[in-house]
Design goal:
This protein is of the alpha/beta class. It has 12 helices and 17 strands. It folds into 2 domains: 4-321, Queuine tRNA-ribosyltransferase-like (TIM Barrel); 325-420, no CATH class. It has helices at residues 105-114, 118-121, 169-179, 197-219, 238-252, 269-280, 297-306, 314-321, 342-345, 367-375, 380-406, 409-419; strands spanning 4-10, 17-23, 28-31, 33-34, 36-37, 79-83, 133-137, 150-152, 155-160, 163-167, 183-185, 228-231, 258-262, 289-292, 310-311, 324-327, 334-337. It has a 9-stranded parallel β-sheet with strand order 4-15-14-13-12-11-7-6-5. It has a 3-stranded antiparallel β-sheet with strand order 1-2-3. Helix 4 (197-219) runs parallel beside helix 5 (238-252) and helix 8 (314-321) crosses helix 11. The radius of gyration is 21 Å and the shape is globular. The structure holds zinc ion.
Length: 420
């Protein structure tokens, strides 16, 4: 199990910063950055061998720490969010469709004998030069807004593919000691928000869960090196956001390696910004901050300005599935609907973005062909758009990091803000 280290450089009195997240197993990721969304052990529509080509060459060299140390720079690792619920059924009697999830010691040891960790189970090891940083949560980030699971006393209840499950902090830590993610996000309640006292009780439950997760970790020698991230929520209630942050720091910060700030996808921009401001000021500056639930470029820009280090990318995957291609690498940012309007694309023999270095635009696949694939309901265009969009975001973030270091972030981001 690896240990993580985060080096942050704050370049102004504001929270915005560049940094580097590193693991003792040699993975290294410059921040701010996008985390790849993962479903059932894979980036949707892509196979592992596709992933290195989506990285930006030389991005490691422009980040803090890498060149200063005199070490040769290597391509950045890929940060990924994974849902433990995708993997828990295999430890349970009755796999693949157990009636209720539980832990069968024989199945757990069978897994451990075959695989060193979740990364090796997912074939994300050194062999394919990905060297990932895996960030494990209990449930699929993409289903955050619809989570049926909630905390009832000492368990989280939920459903995985129609199967009931309940997970206790003990189960959660036990699963993590077998799967060995680089970062384990504490259990948390993310029910659709209700105004009033529900938000307060949700914050209290999350704090209670964090307490139990930390205590369970302390009981297990095998869990000693797990890096726990605390979840700091509070919905749209600014007092609760601040209380969640200050209580998390006051009670648990010695046991935390970083923080997760979750948002519902429909959170409006002013609430999003205010929530980040209410929260981040309380957090320990030297620890990384992950934001869940960003669902637009506008929110992403606000998150970067407010000092978020890592963003989940469930919404980026949805863009590809909806047929939306992004252009972020030119001076005129644009979204293109490649799925609709065949008349617009039918004679268009250009690539999606002329200066794009992604495997799709460099092959090249033309707009007319991509639109045709959507028209005939082929599955390939989802893979093509996801590859292209992830490359565009990686390019965008490499420019953002350079602009923060140069003190020109405002100038760089203004082209996107004027567009929106
Ligand atoms: Zn492209």
């Amino acid at each position: 199990m690896s240990h993580i280290e985060f080096v942050a450089t704050t370049t102004s009195k504001h929270s915005v910063r560049v940094g580097r997240l590193q693991t003792s197993s040699g993975a290294s990721l410059a921040t701010p950055a996008l985390l790849y969304y993962n479903r059932l052990g894979a980036v949707p529509h892509l196979i592992n061998t596709h992933l290195p080509a989506l990285q930006i060459a030389g991005s490691a060299a422009s980040a803090v720490g890498a060149s200063e140390s005199g070490q040769p720079t290597q391509p950045d690792s890929i940060g990924m969010t994974v849902a433990m619920e995708d993997f828990l059924p295999m430890f349970s009697p009755g796999f693949p469709r157990p009636p209720v999830i539980s832990f069968d010691p024989a199945r757990v040891s069978r897994f451990s004998n075959r695989f060193d960790s979740l990364a090796s189970y997912m074939a994300l090891d050194e062999k394919n030069s990905i060297n990932p940083i895996l960030i494990a949560d209990l449930a699929d980030i993409g289903a955050c807004s619809e989570r049926v699971g909630s905390i009832r006393n000492k368990f989280i209840f939920g459903r995985i593919g129609g199967v009931n499950y309940k997970v206790s902090p003990k189960d959660y830590i036990q699963a993590a000691t077998v799967l060995k993610p680089d970062i384990l996000v504490s259990l948390f309640d993310f029910e659709a928000e209700q105004p009033g006292t529900r938000t307060k009780s949700k914050v209290d439950r999350n704090l209670g869960y964090l307490d139990m997760v930390i205590k369970e970790k302390a009981k297990s020698l095998a869990a000693a090196s797990l890096c726990i991230f605390g979840v700091v929520d509070g919905g749209s209630d600014m007092d609760e956001r601040a209380r969640a942050a200050s209580k998390t720091i006051q009670l648990f910060d010695n046991d935390l390696s970083g923080y997760v700030l979750p948002f519902l996808a429909r959170t409006d921009l002013p609430t999003f910004q205010q929530s980040l401001r209410q929260t981040i000021g309380h957090l320990t500056e030297t620890k990384p901050r992950i934001c869940y639930g960003v669902s637009s470029l506008e929110q992403l820009l606000v998150g970067i300005r407010e000092g978020v280090d890592l963003f989940d990318s469930n919404w980026v995957c949805k863009l590809a599935e909806d047929g939306i291609a992004l252009r972020l690498s030119e001076n005129t940012p644009e979204t293109m609907d490649m799925k609709s309007d065949p008349q617009k694309w039918v004679h268009d023999q250009t690539v999606m973005v002329s200066n794009c270095g992604c495997p799709v635009c460099t092959r090249p696949y033309h707009r007319a062909y991509i639109n045709h694939l959507f028209k005939v309901k082929d599955m390939l265009p989802h893979a093509l758009l996801n590859s292209h969009n992830l490359w565009q975001f990686n390019h965008f973030f490499s420019k953002v990091r350079a602009a923060i270091q140069d003190g020109t972030l405002g100038e760089y981001l203004s082209q996107f803000e004027h567009k929106s």
